[in-house]
Amino acid sequence: MMIYHPFTASKIAPEDANLPPGRVHHISVSADDGIQLYGWHVLADGRSAHNRDDCDRQLAEGGPLVLFFSGNAGNRCYRIPDLTTFTRLGVDVFLVDYRGYGENEGSPSEEMLAADARAVWNYTVERRKVVPNRIVLYGESLGGGVAVRLAAEMSEAGSPPGGLLLRSTFSSLTDTATYHYPWLPVRLLLVDRYPSAKRIGAVTCPLLLVHGRRDTIVPIEIGRKLFEAAPKKSSIGIEKRFVELPTADHNDVLSTAEDEFQDAIRQFLETMNGKWSGRSQELEVRESGVGEP
């Protein structure tokens, strides 16, 4: 049973995104075992930067930043339509390929992808100085399992992201495999299980799940099972939301329901905007020591 389908490349340059000059910048993240993970920082529409310092100055101006966790196939070159969905809304995106994908060395597995996701988070917070409550984790399909785990771990550590956005993802890889191969002892065969429904209860940030009603890869019932396992509200009082796309399958969301998908993201970001502002001010006060004895 093949889980991972990476598309490798000897080199992927910012120019390969086919976006205007200055919109896409190279990212390099060091994983804990020394493997370099390469990716892109894609600036929001209407913005551009000449170099890393210029990128950092624009990041410091505030606003949400999406950490993009891809599905199980391809590499970042195949996510350009998804990237533009976010950048049209005025959002910057960090998309770093998993190990074994693109030009990255190594082999993917559940544990290694989780470690790489933590490395990307640490890079974003520590090196790029983006406060956690400005970060939105976005996971599509298999990437939903990666994003849920990271959101749960950061929530448990007391530094939850600003939001968790999931598209076409599952309650667990085991549930999905059982649906497709009911005659196999899937629960005995699978090593990488991505038990998101067991992990999502620890997530304290706002949550949006988007799923196509016609999804033939991850049936919508499996997506709803994940949604039901999530807390009803975030720690800042925002209710979880499930958006069903009536015409969409698994891989055609942007071709069949782009407007509905983008509207759902826009509403999610707008709902969180005031909460972000207040929490950012609180964080600045704590970090400056104001009001501490």
Report on this model:
With 293 residues, the protein is an alpha/beta fold. It has one domain (5-288): Rossmann fold. The protein has helices at residues 52-59, 80-87, 110-127, 142-156, 173-180, 186-189, 196-199, 220-229, 253-256, 258-288; strands at residues 5-6, 24-30, 36-42, 65-69, 73-74, 92-96, 135-140, 163-167, 207-212, 241-245. An 8-stranded mixed β-sheet has the order 2-3-6-4-7-8-9-10, sandwiched between helices. A two-stranded parallel ribbon has the order 1-5. α3 (110-127) crosses α4. The chain starts with a strand and ends in a 5-residue tail after the last helix.
The CATH superfamily bears the name Alpha/Beta hydrolase fold, catalytic domain
Shape: globular
Count of extended strands: 10
Identify the strand order in the major beta sheet: 2-3-6-4-7-8-9-10
CATH topology: Rossmann fold
CATH class: Alpha Beta
The assigned structural class equals alpha/beta
The H-and-E topology, N to C, reads as: EEEHEEHEHEHEHHHEHEHH
The radius of gyration is: 18 Å
N/C terminus separation: 58 Å
The proportion of residues forming helix, as a percent range, comes to 25-40%
